[in-house]
């Protein structure tokens, strides 16, 4: 088959002969004795079985990638990934442990948090 169908496995396969009166019309080869004007035509049919398999594999891969993307995205967002959301004091402790704020800033902010 030409184009898109061929790239995914679509093809034409032999089906039968039209116009022969003797022999097996479903055999891919036939002996024809021509003793009068005769038209013999090979009948082909479209076969999409490989195409269907290829399409199913592509769809399963895309669905798999989508699921992986959703799982990765939910792990990055604490509210969606099942992780607990840090309290203000936990966030402050984390910032202090990373060295983002000084001890004086930490103590002042901690005191403000405990007041509220």
Describe the fold and architecture.
It is a single chain. By secondary structure, this protein is α+β, with helices and mostly antiparallel strands. It folds into two domains: 1-61, no CATH class; 75-116, no CATH class. The protein is 52% helix and 13% strand. It is rod-shaped and about 110 Å long. The mean pLDDT is 84.
Helical run tally? 5
Oligomeric category: single chain
Share of helix, binned? 40-55%
Form type: rod-shaped
The gist of it:
By secondary structure, the chain is α+β, with helices and mostly antiparallel strands. The protein has helices at residues 3-7, 49-76, 78-81, 88-97, 103-115; strands at residues 11-18, 41-47. The chain has a two-stranded antiparallel ribbon with strand order 1-2.
Topology at a glance:
Layout: H1 3-7, E1 11-18, E2 41-47, H2 49-76, H3 78-81, H4 88-97, H5 103-115
Antiparallel strand pairs: 1-2
Name the features.
116 residues, alpha+beta, 2 domains, two-stranded antiparallel sheet, 2 strands, 52% helix
């Amino acid at each position: 088959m030409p184009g898109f169908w061929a790239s995914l496995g679509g093809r034409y396969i032999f089906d039968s002969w039209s116009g022969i009166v003797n022999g097996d019309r479903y055999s891919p080869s036939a002996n024809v004795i021509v003793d009068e004007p005769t038209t013999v035509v090979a009948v082909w049919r479209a076969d999409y079985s490989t195409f269907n398999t290829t399409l199913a594999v592509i769809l399963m891969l895309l669905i798999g990638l989508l699921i992986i993307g959703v799982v990765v995205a939910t792990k990055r967002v604490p509210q969606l990934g099942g992780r607990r959301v840090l309290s203000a004091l936990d966030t402050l402790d984390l910032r202090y442990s990373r060295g983002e704020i000084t001890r004086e800033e930490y103590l002042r902010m901690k005191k403000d948090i405990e007041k509220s």
